[in-house]
Amino acid sequence: MSSSFTAIAGSKRSLHVQVAREIARRILSGQLEQGQVIPGEMTLCEQFGISRTALREAVKLLTSKGLLESKPKIGTKVVDRLNWNFLDPQLLEWMEGLQNAQVFYHQFLGLRKAIEPEACALAARHATAEQRIELSETFQQMCEIADDFDQARWAEVDMHFHRLIFFSTGNDFYLPFGNVLATIFMSFIHHSSKDGGVCINEHRAIYDAIMAGNADKARAASQFLLQEEKHRLPSEVA
C-alpha cells in the first residue's frame, strides 16, 4: 500500500492544514491503516515539499483530532479509530468525497436519531423568544422554497432550521452537534432531498410543537421525520 504523497502548494499560513488534510484523508480512507507508522519527517518533508516546522504543525493538528500519536523510537503512527474525533467539524470536512463517505451519511442519520428528538423536546421547553422568532422566520423560508424548490437553497435553510433547534435546547452540550450539522448536513441533505423530497409536513409538525411548547409532540415529530425511508440515501450501504 503506497504511502507516498505529492508536493503541497499554498500560503505558508495554511500549508500545515493542507498537509494535515492529505494525511487525514489517507487515514480516513484506510490507505494508511490503524497502527501503521507513517513515513518519517525527512521523507514527508521531501514528498510534500515543506519544512519540518510545517510538518510538525500538521502532525500536531492530527494528533489533537485523535488520528496520530508519536512515540520515541517508534515514530508517528495511526491511532485506532476508537480515538478519532468524528465530531470535529474539520475532520468531517476532510471526509468529503472519500470513497466510503456514503457510509457516514447512514451513521450520521443514526446519530441524529439518538439525539435530535430529545433536542427538539428541550427546544420546546427552553427556546427563548428570540430563538422562536428566528425558528419561525426560518420555517417560513422552508415553506416558500418547498413551493418553488431550489435544492441548494433548501439544504442551506433546512440545515439552519435543525441547527437552531440544537442551539435552542438551553443545554451547552448540544451546541457541538449543531456545529456538526453545519459541516455534514449540506452533503447529507443533497441525497435526502433529491427530486424535491423535503418532508415539509414533518418539519411543520416539529415547528408547531416547539412553538406550542409541547416537548412530547416535538420529540415524536422528530422521530417520525428521522425514519430511514424518509431519507433518500444510497441503498447499497443501508
Q: How does this structure look, described?
A:
This protein is mainly alpha-helical and 238 residues long. The chain has helices at 12-28, 41-48, 52-64, 89-95, 101-126, 129-147, 151-167, 175-192, 200-212, 215-225, and strands at 68-71, 75-78. The chain folds into two domains: 12-83, Orthogonal Bundle (Arc Repressor Mutant, subunit A), CATH 1.10.10.10; 99-233, Four Helix Bundle (Hemerythrin (Met), subunit A) (Up-down Bundle). It has a two-stranded antiparallel ribbon. Helix 1 packs across helix 3 (52-64), helix 6 packs antiparallel against helix 7 (151-167) and helix 9 (200-212) runs antiparallel to helix 10 (215-225). The longest helix is centred in the middle third of the chain and has 26 residues, at 101-126. The protein is elongated, with a radius of gyration of 21 Å. The model has no long low-confidence stretch (mean pLDDT 87).
Question: Which overall shape is indicated by the principal axes computed on the Cα atoms?
Answer: elongated
- Mean pLDDT, nearest integer? 87
What is the count of DSSP helices, taking H or I runs of 4+ residues? 10
Total discrete domains: 2
Kindly state the percentage of residues in helix: 55-70%
> What oligomeric assembly is this protein in?
single chain
Give the strand order, joined by hyphens, for the main sheet.
1-2
CATH topology of the largest domain: Four Helix Bundle (Hemerythrin (Met), subunit A)
CATH architecture of the largest domain: Up-down Bundle
Biggest sheet statistics: 2 strands, antiparallel
CATH superfamily of the largest domain: GntR ligand-binding domain-like
- Cα Rg: 21 Å
Structural class: mainly alpha
Strand residue content? under 5%
Q: Please write the string of helix (H) and strand (E) elements.
A: HHHEEHHHHHHH
Q: Any low-confidence stretches, pLDDT <50, length ≥5?
A: none
CATH class term of the largest domain: Mainly Alpha
